[in-house]
């Protein structure tokens, strides 16, 4: 399938969510009817939040089952659930268990063909293995070093990731990855060092990754961006990405987890 019609069908939703977890490579992964349950101790929300594989017909009783599984793994339970009317019973069940929605995030879909139309004189080179310059961007000044280290570790251990980096005379300035999995090219870990933002470096990374996807005969792309990240969303809009759905992370207040 090379063309996407919104809303995505059940098969597309499931393949996208499975591809997401292929990329962030949680330490453990379980499945119950209609859900994937990743377990991880990193700072990456997607690597440790239960996610539905369809956007309808999910019984509220699933929440209790999922909470028990997170207890078994001794990991705080969290969820990421689409903001859709059909999932209102799940939202209500989470509230009853003390979870609150935060960090609104957009799941966007696009195409390799459209992304390659972006004006870009020098697409970032892409590597099959993580490189030291690629990793250095995530722990550059201005980024949380612990979060950056967790992202480097997770993305480096994924078996389906390729790595793009813009490396200049002054050092590495922008990085990103693409997961080639389940018929999708998923874009993850887009980072530009603070002092070099708004210089089209992220465009170079995105076009480089799209070029690799094209070489693998992949046309469908997806990414996830926080709703408040206006700069990134402007780039993705120019590349032809559109929002498939919005989700919130559902977490208990920290005081309740301690």
CATH topology of the largest domain: Aminopeptidase
- The CATH class assignment of the largest domain is Alpha Beta
- Specify the overall morphology: globular
Rounded average pLDDT: 95
Q: How helix-rich are the residues, as a percent range?
A: 25-40%
Sheet with most strands: 8 strands, mixed
Tally of helical segments:
9
Can you identify the CATH superfamily of the largest domain?
A: Gcn5-related N-acetyltransferase (GNAT)
Number of domains: 2
Unreliable residue stretches: none
| Total strand segments | 11
Kindly report the spatial arrangement of strands forming the biggest sheet. 4-11-5-10-9-8-7-6
Radius of gyration: 18 Å
Beta-strand percentage? 25-35%
**SSE series:** HEEEHEHEHEHHEEEHEHEH
What's the CATH architecture name of the largest domain? 3-Layer(aba) Sandwich
List keywords for this structure.
258 residues; alpha+beta; Aminopeptidase; 2 domains; eight-stranded mixed β-sheet
Describe the structure.
By secondary structure, the protein is an alpha+beta fold. It folds into two domains: 10-104 and 249-257, no CATH class; 110-245, Aminopeptidase (3-Layer(aba) Sandwich). It is built from nine helices and eleven strands. It has an eight-stranded mixed sheet, with helices on both faces. Strands 1-2-3 form a three-stranded antiparallel sheet, sandwiched between helices. Helix 7 links the parallel strand 9 (184-192) and strand 10 (220-226).
């Amino acid at each position: 399938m090379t063309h996407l019609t919104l809303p995505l069908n059940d098969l597309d939703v499931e393949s996208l969510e499975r591809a997401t977890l292929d990329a962030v490579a949680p330490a453990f992964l379980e499945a119950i009817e209609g859900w994937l349950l990743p377990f991880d101790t990193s700072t990456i929300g997607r690597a440790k939040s239960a996610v539905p594989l369809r956007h309808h017909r999910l019984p509220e009783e699933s929440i209790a089952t999922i909470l028990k599984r997170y207890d078994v793994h001794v990991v705080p339970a969290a969820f990421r659930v689409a903001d859709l009317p059909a999932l209102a019973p799940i939202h209500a069940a989470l509230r009853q268990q003390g979870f609150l929605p935060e960090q609104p995030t957009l799941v966007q879909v696009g195409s390799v063909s459209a992304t390659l139309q972006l004006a870009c004189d020098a697409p970032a080179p892409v590597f099959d293995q993580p490189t030291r310059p690629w990793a250095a961007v995530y722990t550059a000044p201005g980024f949380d070093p612990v979060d950056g280290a967790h992202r480097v570790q997770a993305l480096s251990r994924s078996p389906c990731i390729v790595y793009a980096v813009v490396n200049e005379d002054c050092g590495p300035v922008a990085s990103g990855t693409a997961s080639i999995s389940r018929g999708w090219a998923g874009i993850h870990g887009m980072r530009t060092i603070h002092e070099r933002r708004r210089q089209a470096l992220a465009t170079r990374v995105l076009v480089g990754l799209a070029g690799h996807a094209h070489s693998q005969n992949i046309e469908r792309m997806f990414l996830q961006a926080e709703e408040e990240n206006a700069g990134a969303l402007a780039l993705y809009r120019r590349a032809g990405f559109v929002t498939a759905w919005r989700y919130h992370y559902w977490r208990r207040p920290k005081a309740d987890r301690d």
